[in-house]
Amino acid sequence: MQLTFLGAAGEVTGSCYLVDTGEIRFLIDCGMFQGGGEADRRNRSFAFDPRDIAFVLLSHAHIDHSGLLPRLVALGFDGAIYATRATADLLQVMLPDSAHLQEREAEHAEAGHSGRNRGAPPLYTVEHAVASLARLRPVEYDESVRLAPSVRCVFRDAGHILGSAILEIWLTAAGGNETKLVFSGDLGQPGRPIVRDPAPIAEADVLLVESTYGDRNHKSLAATLDEFAAALNETLATGKGNVVIPAFAVGRTQEILYFIAELASQGRIGSFAVYVDSPMALAATRVTLEHPEVLDRDAATLTKWLVSGKGKPRVHFTETLEDSMKINSIRSGAVIISASGMCEGGRIRHHLRYNLSRPECAIVFVGFQAEGTLGRRIVDGAATVRFFGEEHPVRAKVYTIGGLSAHADREALLGWLGGFRRPPRATWVVHGEPLAAHSLRDAIEERFGWRAAVPAPRQRASLASAG
Fold this sequence. Notes:
Elements: E1 2-7, E2 16-20, E3 25-28, H1 37-43, E4 53-57, H2 63-66, H3 69-74, E5 80-84, H4 85-110, H5 126-133, E6 136-139, E7 144-148, E8 151-157, E9 165-172, E10 178-183, E11 206-210, H6 221-236, E12 243-246, H7 252-265, E13 273-277, H8 279-289, H9 299-308, E14 315-318, H10 321-327, E15 334-338, H11 348-355, E16 362-365, H12 374-379, E17 384-387, E18 390-393, E19 397-400, H13 410-417, E20 426-430, H14 434-448, E21 452-453, E22 460-462
Parallel strand pairs: 3-4, 4-5, 5-6, 10-11, 11-20, 12-15, 12-16, 13-14, 13-15, 16-19, 20-21
Antiparallel strand pairs: 1-2, 1-22, 2-3, 7-8, 8-9, 9-10, 17-18
Helix pairs in contact: 4-5, 4-8, 7-9, 8-9
């Protein structure tokens, strides 16, 4: 039995792992690489024949974990895609939206309006996305699912976004020996609103653990909210500028709105208009309302308030392109939340175009920015950035509020790992850039005395010996 690390190995995006039992081959995640032209090239070719894959196990709906499912189907995959019920519902919105963006970017490239290869077809189409949705097989948390005679799986709550899962997978070899493979997926930070804390796992033979923030800790939630309130007040109190927040439509947007509502109820921020410029964010909020069984205590009340628009500050969800364009004429007093979270596409780029070069405005980053993305270049202090075929000076104040990330920090990751009753035979540190992944690996070895390693892209490991 072998495991091959096809993505999110020494990097954050492109989560994908191939398991070959000797009898069947299946994937854990099938995510899109993000961050420039090299990512586009990598997204167009698989290191395997999609027709040979029996099924896919999906940890959650974010595009860096699910975004190549339509391409997988387009190239011949005809198996089942197993995911939690909430993830399956989110994908009904996210994959067609991703396909629409792919089609639109191909059109822009053909017209010479982007840096993409002219004449290159879209990565996949809306038709492909719809076909991939037909392959979804929703499962419940904590339900044991028999996927093949030699494979069974249980999805546990990962506490990252709605429907996110830790995967416990049992593999039975031809001789009857069983190996338990655990994939953490993306783990959430404990004690956060909307979703529940990550479920503890007691044991594994082989463990794959994420390391997005493996080299640092978030500020406390109280200190994080102080920082967030200051960013809003310092910008909006002048009456001259706007606050632009790039945020993933699923998970980040809902939590940011939660915190804005909380700060407003405490009188810690002034009165302003909030524009959520993402049809997907509205759809994701509605999906959230449909899954009270996976929310924490206050989340259902919050989401009802958001959709009703009756609270203060007033939240405006925009759906049409015309409504989105109207926001660009607002020069001050607005908080604009839009996707994508790493500024790699979507409507956020238009809002950056109208606000990034204005010193009276602020750009507030609330999630991880992968290497090579537009968001990362801004966070790293670039004086100018290029998008829409033009150079844009960065004059707005840039805030990075790591404590609002949906990912567990270093101590939270180590805390979750501390729940294992015995050391795994092998621990692989994945889904982190090199500094973060190696830092977490070192911490695991020092604190627990476990054997841990950071895999290289396309590296193979024997599951039988876990070496």
